[in-house]
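$ run holo --ligand "calcium ion" --emit C-alpha cells
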Amino acid sequence: MTLRTLNRLAAVFCAALITPTVFSGPVTPASLNPDHPDYRMLLARSILKKAGPDDPYADQVISYNSGTNAAPGFLDPLTTLGIPERFTGEGIFPSAVTVFNSPFGTDEIVSIGEGGSLTIQFNTPVTDDPDNLFGIDLLVFGNALFAFGGSGVGNPAGLFSEPGIIEVSVDGTTWFTVADALADDLFPTEGYRDLTDPFATTPGSVESNFTQPVDPALSLADFSGLTYAQVLEIYNGSGGGAGVDIGALGLSEISFVRISNPVGSGITPEIDGFADVAPRIPGDVDLDGQVNVTDLLKLLGAWGARAPGDPPADFNNDGLVNVTDLLTLLGNWG
Ligand SMILES: [Ca+2]
Ligand SMILES: [Ca+2]
Ligand SMILES: [Ca+2]
Ligand SMILES: [Ca+2]
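-- output --
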C-alpha cells in the first residue's frame, strides 16, 4: 500500500467515521475556561486580535454538543476557529488539503454526532455586502471530498459528504435555517492554486482564497470527469466551502452560526472552519484587484444570461451580464 493510498484511505476513513460514543454536554467556551488546554493559545490569539484588525474567520465557540455518535477523538470544537486547513496529517500522513484529500487531524476538525450541534461566533459580523461574489457572504468548511476517478473526478461525479444543517443568527437567540446550502458538502476545500498532484505531500506555492466562494450555481454533475487541473480552473482561486447568502434570509448581518445534525441522520458531519466572504472590487472580473481591459474583454465574452462557471461579470447578481454590469465596470475603471 503506497503512502498515497494510505493518505487517501485516512481521509476517507475520517470522512465516514461513524462510531458510537458517549453523550457529551455543551462545553464552556475555552476563553472562559482556564483549565482548557487551549486556553493560553486562545488568550494569546485574542490579545493579538486586539492589536490589529479582526481576521475573517470564526472567533468563539459558544456551545458544542457532540451528540450520540461523533467520531471518537474529533471532539474539540476549538478546531473550527481561525483559518481552515491548507495542509493536513502533520506527523501522520502529511499532505496538502485538496478537493480529493480533506483534512483529517483530530486537531483540525470536529465531529457532530446525531442530536449534536456546534455554535460559533464572529467578533465582527458577517454582512450581506452587495459586492460579495455571487452574493455569498459566509463559507462553512467541512471535510467533504470528491471521489477520485483515476485522473480526476469520477464520472459520474461522486462526493463523500455528510451534510449538516446550517443556521445563522444576529443575536444567538433567533435562528434562521439556510435552505440552499449544507455544511460538510459541496464544495470540498482546496488549499492551493498551483498543485498538479491532488495527493501532494508538500504544500503548494500559491495559496487559495478562503474568503472567495465557488460559483454556487455549480452542481456536483458539473464536476463529472474533470481533471484536477480543470477543477482548479473552475474553483478560480477559491478555497471551496459551502456558501451562504444571508441576504436570501432577509438578513443584513449575522454574528452566530450553528451547525446541527438531526437524530436519525445516519451521518456525522465534520467541521473545519468558517469564513466571512471578502467583497470584491465591482468590475473586477478576474479578481486581480484591478479593473482594466482584461476585465472588459472577459465581461464582453460573458455577455447575456449567466451560466454556471462563467467568468463572474454579473456584479449585481441578477443572472445577467448586460449594460448594467458594463456601466459598473466602466465606473470603477483603474
Ligand atoms: Ca449576500
Ligand atoms: Ca480547522
Ligand atoms: Ca481585474
Ligand atoms: Ca447583472
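-- notes --
Residues 1-34, 42-51 have pLDDT under 50 and may be disordered.
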